[in-house]
Amino acid sequence: MSGRAAALPVSDWRDEIFAVLKQARIAQVGYVPDAGHARLIDLVRADPEIDAIPLTTEEEGIALAAGAWLGGQRAALLMQSSGVGNCVNMLSLAKNCRFPLVMLVTMRGEWGEFNPWQVPMGTKTAAALELMDVMVYRVEHTEAAAETVAAAIDIAYNSDLAVAVLLAQRLIGAKRWTK
Amino acid sequence: MIGNDRRLDRRLAMRILLDKRDDLLVVTGLGSTTWDAAAAGDDPRNFYLWGAMGSAAMIGLGLALAQTQRRVLVITGDGEMLMGLGGLATIGIRRPANLAIAVFDNGRYGETGMQASHTEAGVDLVAIARACGIKETFDITDELGVRDFAARAHKSATTLFARLMIRADEPPRVLPPRDGVHLKNRFRRAIGLESS
């Protein structure tokens, strides 16, 4: 485990999401590096039972998860809201084949955003997912994070559906631009 | 081979790759490689892509990581591979031993009217694969090379990448099933998993 992950308190809601991933037997996690997911990425990378796969672009993860399921493993994807826009055509793979798909999306471009370039995709993230018939759950408060991720994994893998959990920027905290 | 054309016949290359496949798991890319695999003989362990262009190699990665006791061969075209080039970087830093990627490179987008692809203008997929960290790469121009690669795909110790120089022609389409749910479920059943 990296020093950064170890330095945070163990009761962190990202630790609770990690525990949910473990309990749900998620074996592959595709991710694009992201500040909001940093701790969860560190935890996943440190786990010997999880293949943590850094992606160059988020749509690779849709394909990775499909391949994992063809081979009998469960996957989850970690990305930022801007990455959802990169996924739109690739979501046809999940939809056509009814591949189970779990996307955990940290939101930008909403609560307290400093960078206007994050706003166009951030304000359309849910709409873009719903356009492709991905179910969208939203988490605004830390206490709801773990149970919402657990519910998303359950419905994705029990009903062969694509589900995204949007983790609100208010939950994560707006990025600080000045130190 | 016909006349002085040194490039391979795509249907022959596919037949060689899938001959003596044993328990090989196959992913084919949107377009001609899907028709080529169907022409070589349908098999539930073929996952044919009819869309999701650029996804073939990454589906192969997820499958190879999940099925470590089996061999996975991705067979796709140059246009499909070009759309997912980032996936080669992702594969290059992980390199499962049971994954092989074969790109049928005819320098054309066959499904849209045989327009030239970037490889026709000199983009070198073998060099890209090597630069991404895939150390075992092959530039194949003849049947012997295809046979050698097919054998290596069953016993390699690292991810393999091959470019096959394919003649730019359009053999008759042979269409496999196109219902994605059916393709998924029969694939999973064929390797002993529940169908859903």
Would you give an account of this structure?
The complex is a heterodimer of chains A (179) and B (196). Chain A has a single domain, classed as Rossmann fold. Chain A has ten helices and six strands. Chain A has helices at 3-7, 13-23, 38-46, 59-70, 81-84, 91-97, 119-122, 125-131, 142-159, 169-172; strands spanning 26-31, 51-54, 74-80, 101-106, 135-139, 162-167. In chain A, helix 9 links the parallel strand 5 (135-139) and strand 6. In chain B, helix 1 (10-18) crosses helix 2 (32-39), helix 1 (10-18) runs parallel beside helix 7 and helix 5 packs parallel to helix 6. At the A-B interface, strand 2, helix 4 and helix 6 of A face helix 3, helix 5 and helix 8 of B.
Q: What is the string of helix and strand elements of chain A?
A: HHEHEHEHHEHHEHEH
Count of DSSP strands of chain A: 6
Shape of chain B: globular
CATH homologous superfamily name of chain B? Thiamin diphosphate (ThDP)-binding fold, Pyr/PP domains
Q: Which topology of chain B does CATH recognise? A: Rossmann fold
Backbone structural class of chain B:
alpha/beta
CATH homologous superfamily classification of chain A = Thiamin diphosphate (ThDP)-binding fold, Pyr/PP domains
CATH top level label of chain A? Alpha Beta
- What is the structural class of chain A? alpha/beta
Span between N and C termini of chain B? 44 Å
Name some characteristics of this structure:
heterodimer; A: 179 residues; alpha/beta; Rossmann fold; six-stranded parallel β-sheet; 6 strands; 45% helix; globular; B: 196 residues; 8 helices; 8 strands; 36% helix
